[in-house]
Amino acid sequence: MRLSRYFMPILKENPKEAEIVSHRLMLRAGMIRQQSAGIYAWLPLGKRVLEKVNAIIRDEQNRAGAMEIMMPTIQSADLWIESGRYNDYGKEMLRIRDRQDRAMLYGPTNEEMVTDIFRSYVKSYKNLPLNLYHIQWKFRDEIRPRFGTMRSREFLMKDAYSFDLTKEDAIHSYNKMFAAYLRTFSRLGLRAIPMRADTGPIGGNHSHEFIILAETGESEVFCHKDFVNFDIPGIDTDFDDVDGLQAIFNQWTSAYAATSEMHDEAEFGAIAEGDRLSARGIEVGHIFYFGTKYSEPMGAKVLGPDGVEHTVHMGSYGIGPSRLVPAIIEASHDENGIIWPRSVAPFEAVVINMKAGDNTCDTVSAQVYEALSNAGKDVLLDDTAERAGSKFATADLIGIPDQVVVGPRSAANGEVEVKDRKTGERQTMTVEAAINMLLAKAG
Questions:
Q1: For residue 48, how far is the Cα from the chain centroid?
Q2: What is the pLDDT of residue 199?
Q3: DSSP assignment, residue 377?
Q4: Average pLDDT per run of 10 along the chain, which is 443 residues long?
Q5: Number of Cβ within a 10 Å radius of residue 202
Q6: Largest CA distance in the chain
Q7: What pLDDT, on a 0 to 100 scale, did the predictor assign at position 201?
Q8: Is 166:313 a contact under the CB 8 Å cutoff?
Q9: What DSSP line would sit under 43-87, residue for residue?
Q10: So what's the pLDDT on residue 321?
């Protein structure tokens, strides 16, 4: 992609409405634009990052055995009345009526709808376990939307829903998602700590919020520092291995970890002082076993091996991609801009032509750009007529992992400079060596 033809409206000044780093940088980098309170348009640069986040989430959901569907954003109120939630949800739900005066709503979540899909088709235990997920826009009319897409009214959500014959089976489904979430966040360049969340009247130990540590986090969190060193489940994780997944769950819940809402000062104080970690955190995912909360009132039953109908046990598993993008920025930035993990960067490399119009610079820039692009790399070519300082500032602001600087003097010698955005390290090398080095880096 040539920058001269790319829609990326960079802002020179910090927007006054931006309260936190990620909101400020997303606006300045031309990733998003606010259309109304808590509602944003995703511009090309932001959309590229959002789709790369979605791809990793999809990959890990599929690996864990979940199957993707797509449910509509507009739902019938009848399903929510049936489950008993319609009158309890509050003003966050956007209630509407169609031209036939039927009560509808813009879905804030999908438990009722997916339960209706399940009960319409699944009648036997032989079709279990089942986990259905989708990535879809949702709307919650927050009283105070803030922090850009971190807490917006319209947001993108990956929500998965598991169905099992028994609670024991449901716990195994829960452990699948638990391991999948650890892998997902690790691939996004984040260290997420599962912290026990309130299970309400259901009770038990199977509701966890996944929290990343960031100085600008929304809330205070408390945990044992061992979490920083726990092993992430590998790519060879067997999601059918009940004992293996339980062992992963046991390890990652063996030490103290709590948000401020669930914090026990006495229990935390019992940890050796050098092992206590108190920090700010951002919630990036939530998984929850809720048993028969929806399946019972909505009649979601299957015929069991004993010939008797059983109400299925369910769980829900949420990740907000449109929330993850600013969360990644909060965890990875410096005074000059964003530092994207390579896995979700909008482009893997930017080729900076320092003197567009100069024959040698144009030739070398095109050579690097075409070699990387033809090999399947996402590359941005800065072929604009901007000053050198402006080009460098833009490259740092948008956070592309590798910068290839092509100047008249180095190009005349068949060389370029390669800068690592994260470390700031600079290397001068031949054009061929630079191409080979960048091709060897994983996306």
A1: 13
A2: 67
A3: -
A4: 96 88 96 96 98 98 98 97 92 95 96 97 98 97 91 96 98 98 97 85 76 85 92 97 97 93 92 93 94 96 97 97 97 96 97 95 97 96 95 97 96 96 96 95 72
A5: 14
A6: 81
A7: 58
A8: yes
A9: PHHHHHHHHHHHHHHHHHHHHTT-EE----SEEEHHHHHHHT-TT
A10: 98
* Amino acid residing at 393: A
Place of tokens 């090398």: 429
The continuous run of DSSP H or E covering 410 comes out as helix 408-412
Identify the pLDDT of residue 375. 95
Tell me if the bond preceding 326 is cis, omega within 30° of 0: no
Q: Name which of 44, 10, 58, 41 is nearest 319 in CA terms.
A: 58
Who's near 241: CB < 8 A, 6+ residues apart?
none
Spatial separation of the C-alpha atoms in residues 211 and 192, rounded to whole Å: 5
Q: Which helix (DSSP H) or strand (DSSP E) does residue 323 occupy?
A: helix 321-331
Q: How far is it, in rounded angstroms, from Cα 440 to Cα 154?
A: 39
149 — phi, psi (to 5°)? -80, 0
Q: From CA 88, how far away is CA 44, in angstroms rounded?
A: 39
Q: For residues 395-424, b (16+ Cβ closer than 10 Å) or e, as one string? A: bbbbbbbbbbbbbeebbeeebbbbbebeee
What does the block give as tokens for 413? Answer: 């010698």
Measured distance CA(319)–CA(287) in Å, rounded: 9
Please give the Cα distance from 367 to 383 (Å, whole number). Answer: 13
